[in-house]
Design a protein that fits this description.
674 residues, alpha/beta, binds zinc ion
Length: 674
């Protein structure tokens, strides 16, 4: 069980009074609680990769949430146990663990139905997710079918991740501390999963491994959430092993790490860990014995990957913690658990020793070096005028690039998202422009700016911002997909295809890139290429409802309506809340002359998604054309009032249609009401 973003010290068993975590506390009370457990990364995808394969990110290469895929040839707990006849199921709650990123291998079931469509057009920094209660319900259904079978089940909950919005009763129970409300929400969600296991007591045969992927800074060292720095607030995690048959309750204070979990689980079922894993079994410690002390590697590379800041690497050994940055840091956690006294200057020999250990460990590390296919992509970008001259990723970093000196920019970027989430898009853009002006070399800030400009209908500006972002970070498939999408939507699908094709030729291309490329092909009537590109998407991400839907839309274009209808129905099976599927089913009904069916589909689309402007537009136009003016009026008014600037052309069309229709129905000019 992995609970996202869960600080160890937010749990009752770790000493937090009134934590609201009765289930976690019960598990810990009868299990082995590790007080000094650490992650190696402070973001979701790399951290879970470490847990599942027992190796440092240096070996598996997943260094950030975006732009990476777990290698197809690396063993994980799931592949190893599956090959030994275990049944395997994964139930995850948020997009960073979507099947497209490759953690699916070895799992017979990989349930990532978040119920929200993801893609290049998704909201700024909005992470599709589902409540833990739903994930746990799916896991329980699967586990109920595993009676008398050996199984490995991974359950991931996303609460208490930001934005903190605990439901009742947890919101009221933790007024002024919504993060803790989220922790209590996660705990309650786990109850139905833990209750039957705990009820079996010493007779049970289930090993429970409970941890978090990383913690949450909550203001520590000027960090609000997580991902940029690597202090204990985010690097330290809870860890509980529960298996009363194997070991009795105990508190272990020896340092342990996520890479130890794969060897531990294999050890518990009598299997050896494969060669090359970085961890070792915790069962000796759990049973009250000892094991040789080991150093722990960690890193935080998100800011390096997305903002061009200095990459953060580090090493812990005993109570010493070394953070390798332009301004190096050394702490003694035994005497300074809050990491307030940097000993880097006063203890140069310790610093040198840890630095050389870290260099040893990273000897073969390629870090964030571009993917193999990038040179070709970069060449094409240059030829198209999209890259070059504006500086690619830096190779040398100075104190000016040290993330701890740049946290005010981190806060400002959070405020950009905050304003956007509140609906103040112009305010968000104004602040984003200030951030870009104060440090123009951050691809992420330019990427945000592009997104906000696009939302405000400033298409040329958005394309220029995205172009600059990509020039700074040509590896970013996220930005490439976004720019390709903008170009295709601005009447330049040929340029979009030229931009995206090099990225699409990677052995395992990015899903958003393939989606944007398919959209570009579709808009120049290369329907066969578009259908093939969506097919590639579905190869890597079979549960991608939006890709199934978009493939259906292209099939309509190609005149293959029966296949299209099947695609929309399949999309709705994958995601019943996908309003856009009803928009398209309405279009098919309308083409068949089944007007009432079409109207019903569009109304359904609007119920599911109030921002389904296409449905609003189709309802308004169809009803007007039928002369059903009173019925049409609310849709017309709502569309004219709410449609975003990107709908400008349709707004004009509808306005003139409404004027003409009402004029005709009143029989005289001048009496029309819009
Ligand atoms: Zn996470």
């Amino acid at each position: 069980m992995t609970v996202d973003t869960l600080r160890a010290d937010a749990i009752g068993a770790y000493g937090y009074r009134d934590a609201g975590t009765p289930w976690m506390d019960r598990l810990a009370a009868d299990g082995v609680l590790f007080t000094r457990a650490h992650a190696h990364n402070v973001v979701t995808f790399p951290s879970h990769a470490n847990i599942l394969c027992g190796r440092y990110p240096i070996r598996h290469g997943v260094r950030d949430n975006a732009g990476f895929r777990f290698p197809a040839d690396m063993e994980t707990i799931a592949t190893l146990l599956r090959s030994r006849g275990f049944h395997t199921g994964a139930f995850v709650s948020a997009f960073p663990l979507d099947s497209r990123f490759g953690l699916t291998r070895g799992f017979e079931v990989y349930d990532d139905h978040f119920g929200e469509a993801a893609g290049p057009a998704m909201r700024l920094e909005h992470i599709p997710r589902r409540p833990g209660t739903e994930t746990v319900a799916a896991a329980r259904r699967w586990m109920a079918a595993q009676v008398d079978r050996s199984f490995f089940c991974w359950v991931h909950l996303y609460e208490p991740h930001w934005p903190y919005a605990p439901p009742e009763p947890f919101a009221s129970r933790f007024p002024g501390n919504p993060y803790q409300g989220g922790v209590a929400t996660a705990d309650a969600a786990l109850g139905p999963l833990l209750q039957p296991i705990l009820a079996q007591g010493a007779g049970g045969r289930t090993l429970v491994v409970f941890t978090a992927d990383h913690g949450e800074a909550l203001g520590d060292h000027d960090e609000i959430t997580h991902g940029i720095l690597a202090y204990e607030a985010t690097l330290r995690v809870p860890l509980v092993l529960y298996a009363p048959r194997l070991f009795s309750r105990r508190v272990v204070s020896e340092p342990v790490r996520h890479v130890d979990l794969l060897p531990t689980i294999l050890d518990a079922v009598g299997l050896d860990a494969p060669r090359g894993v970085d961890g070792s079994s915790l069962l000796p410690l759990a049973a009250g014995g000892a094991r040789p002390a080991a150093a722990t590697y960690f890193e935080a590379l998100t800011a390096a990957a997305t903002r061009g800041w200095a990459p953060l690497y580090g090493l812990m050994r005993g109570s010493e913690k070394y953070i390798d940055l332009p301004i190096p840091e050394l702490y003694d956690l035994a005497t300074d658990p809050r990491e307030e006294k940097n000993l880097a200057v006063s203890r140069p020999q310790d610093l040198a020793r840890l630095r050389s250990l870290l260099l040893d460990l990273r000897r073969s590390d390629r870090g964030l070096q571009p993917a193999r296919e990038s040179p070709e992509a970069l060449e094409r970008l240059r030829a198209l005028g999209y890259a070059g001259g504006e500086g690619a990723r830096k190779v040398g970093y100075t104190e000016e690039d040290d993330p701890k000196r740049l946290m005010s920019l981190n806060t400002a970027l959070s405020q950009v998202i905050g304003r956007y989430d509140e609906g103040d898009v112009p305010g968000a853009l104004a602040l984003c422009r200030e951030v870009v002006a104060s440090r123009p070399t951050m691809p992420q800030a330019l990427h945000y700016r592009a997104y906000l400009e696009w939302q405000l209908g400033q298409r040329d500006a958005a394309i220029e911002s995205a172009r600059r972002a990509l020039a700074l970070n040509a590896d970013s498939t996220e930005i490439a997909a976004r720019l390709g999408y903008y170009l295709a939507q601005s009447g330049r699908p040929g340029a979009a295809a030229s931009l995206l094709e090099p990225y699409s030729r990677r052995r395992e291309p990015d899903v958003d890139v393939m989606t944007a490329l398919a959209v570009a092909y579709a808009s120049v009537d290369r329907t066969a290429d578009a259908v093939a590109a969506f097919g590639r998407v579905l190869e890597f991400d079979p549960s991608n409802a939006l890709a199934v839907l978009n493939r259906g839309r292209v099939l309509i274009q190609a005149g293959r309506t029966a296949e299209a209808r099947a695609a929309f129905q399949r999309a709705l099976q994958l995601d019943p809340s996908l309003g856009l599927a009803h928009v398209s089913l309405g279009l098919l009904a309308s083409q068949d002359g089944r007007t009432e069916d079409a109207l019903a589909e569009w109304r359904r689309a609007l119920e599911l998604d109030p921002r389904a402007y296409e449905a609003l537009f189709d309802l308004a136009v169809t009803l007007l054309q039928q002369g059903r003016i009173a019925e049409a009026r609310p849709y017309v008014e709502r569309y004219l009032r709410d449609a975003p600037p990107t709908e400008a052309a349709n707004v004009a069309r509808l306005r003139s249609l409404a004027r003409a229709t009402t004029r005709a129905s009143h029989g005289a000019p001048g009496s029309a009401r819009e």
